[in-house]
């Protein structure tokens, strides 16, 4: 299945009737009134916008502005993730909330944080992006990198993986603290 259509389908399922009505209103200058009146779901609206080339896999600014206007920042974030990575994890793919040793690790790993991130197979490109976004805050760079790693792994982001990586980096004291 096309990941972009899958994303739009998930957006459609999460829209309330009021949000759909607002989005239809925002499309009035793009879609005729008669056609808009027949739209009963987000999928139908997205289909019309795709047919008219208002939104495509590579052209999402109109969709993004509509989602921002209806105050659906969660969907905007998923759309931006799709644009950056070409895929989106579903909301239920998020890490298990009990697996949150990030604070302990951030408090105890200092300058060697990049070594740990590389041991976790965190992409170098993402590492550089996080560093550029927080150039003067080492702890924030590390924190954001760990959060990105956790998001990318979803439910597979386990404390045990972090502990193993810490031990491989000879950060045994931190690994012991995380285990506690």
UniProtKB/TrEMBL annotation:
InterPro entries with a match to the protein in the record: DEATH-like_dom_sf, Death_dom, DED_dom, FADD
Domain named DED: residues: 3-81
A molecular function GO annotation: protein-macromolecule adaptor activity
GO biological process: extrinsic apoptotic signaling pathway; innate immune response; positive regulation of cytokine production; positive regulation of extrinsic apoptotic signaling pathway; positive regulation of innate immune response
Subcellular location, principal: cytoplasm
One GO CC annotation: CD95 death-inducing signaling complex
Location of this chain's protein in the cell: Cytoplasm
Domain of life assignment: Eukaryota
Domain Death: 98-180
Regions annotated as coiled coil: none
Keyword Nucleotide-binding: no
Pfam families registered for this protein in UniProt: Death, DED
Keyword Oxidoreductase: no
This protein's UniProt keywords: Apoptosis, Cytoplasm, Immunity, Innate immunity, Phosphoprotein
Job of this protein: Apoptotic adapter molecule that recruits caspases CASP8 or CASP10 to the activated FAS/CD95 or TNFRSF1A/TNFR-1 receptors. The resulting aggregate called the death-inducing signaling complex (DISC) performs CASP8 proteolytic activation. Active CASP8 initiates the subsequent cascade of caspases mediating apoptosis. Involved in interferon-mediated antiviral immune response, playing a role in the positive regulation of interferon signaling.
Subunit structure: Can self-associate. Component of the AIM2 PANoptosome complex, a multiprotein complex that drives inflammatory cell death (PANoptosis). Component of the death-induced signaling complex (DISC) composed of cell surface receptor FAS/CD95 or TNFRSF1A, adapter protein FADD and the CASP8 protease; recruitment of CASP8 to the complex is required for processing of CASP8 into the p18 and p10 subunits. Interacts (via death domain) with FAS (via death domain).
Protein name (record): FAS-associated death domain protein
Lineage: Eukaryota, Metazoa, Chordata, Craniata, Vertebrata
């Amino acid at each position: 299945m096309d990941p972009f259509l899958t994303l739009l389908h998930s957006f459609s399922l999460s829209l309330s009737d009021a949000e759909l009505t607002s989005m239809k209103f925002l499309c009035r200058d793009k879609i005729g009134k008669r056609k808009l009146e027949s739209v009963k779901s987000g999928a139908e609206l997205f289909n019309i916008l795709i047919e008219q080339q208002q939104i495509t896999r590579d052209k999402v600014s109109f969709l993004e502005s509509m989602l921002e206007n209806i105050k659906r920042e969660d969907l905007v974030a998923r759309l931006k993730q799709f644009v950056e990575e070409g895929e989106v994890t579903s909301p239920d793919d998020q890490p298990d909330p009990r697996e949150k040793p990030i604070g302990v690790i951030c408090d105890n790993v200092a300058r060697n944080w990049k070594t740990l991130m590389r041991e976790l197979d965190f992409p170098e490109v993402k590492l550089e992006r996080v560093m550029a976004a927080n150039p003067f805050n080492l702890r924030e760079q590390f924190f954001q990198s760990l959060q990105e790693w956790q998001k990318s792994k979803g439910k597979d982001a386990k404390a045990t993986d972090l502990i193993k990586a810490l031990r491989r980096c000879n950060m045994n004291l931190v690994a012991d603290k995380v285990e506690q």
